[in-house]
Known about the structure:
Layout: E1 2-6, H1 14-27, E2 32-38, E3 57-61, E4 64-67, H2 71-82, E5 90-97, H3 104-107, H4 109-119, E6 124-129, H5 143-159, E7 170-175, E8 186-188, E9 200-205, E10 211-216, H6 229-234, E11 238-243, H7 250-253
Parallel strand pairs: 1-2, 1-5, 2-4, 5-6, 6-7, 8-11
Antiparallel strand pairs: 3-4, 7-11, 9-10
Amino acid sequence: MRILITNDDGISAPGLAVLEEIATDLAGPSGEVWTVAPAFEQSGVGHCISYTTPMMISQMDERRFAAQGSPADCVLAAVHDVMKDTPPDLILSGVNRGNNAAENAVYSGTVGAAMEAALQGYPAVALSQYYGPRNRDLDDKFESSRQHGLATLRTLLDKGVWTQDDYGIFYNVNFPPIPGAEVQGLRACRQGFRRDMGFGVQPTTSPSGRRFLWVTGAPQGEPTADGTDADWNLKGYISVTPMRADLTAHDALDALKAIE
């Protein structure tokens, strides 16, 4: 198996090293793991592409490249340039430092890379490691993803739903914020929503007197609705959420017949 890996934390991020270990085991002795990842951190860029500016790409090692662009750019660079003659069988994004459950998935460059992969017609999975008080002080903060990532991906490849339609399914996987030995299992679930927990801004003034705004986050320990991704993560389970890039609110279409 030939696997492409990328992320949004940058090519030097520890989570990418974890993913490389997982992908190497998944690819097997005769497989290949290719890396095309952002040269610098690109957290929170979502599905952004560098449509108006070129991106420089540099080869760092055999089958390892850094691109000055977004995670989605890295997927485009890989499938249309770096790997155009040897396309990947699977594209993996992560392992992100922090969760991409609930509304975080909308902003996530990790998820954005998997989304672009699906739009390009490739099976893809985004993987993220939830942080919390029970794992952030561990020697290996990625313990649960490192220990359970391979089995999770093998299960998805064996039993997951993979489609070849216009907006193909990709997967958003989040590992719980607990030690690896305490992970309870997998749960297939929908995306949750943290109410009153959205992003905001914090004004500040620089020493030169100029005004700036810092984007602020919110506590990540608040549960979402029962049975949704972050809810299962906080209960010790790995969440697996099937997603599509189709943004249509299908549940509203019948009600809108009245406007025709």
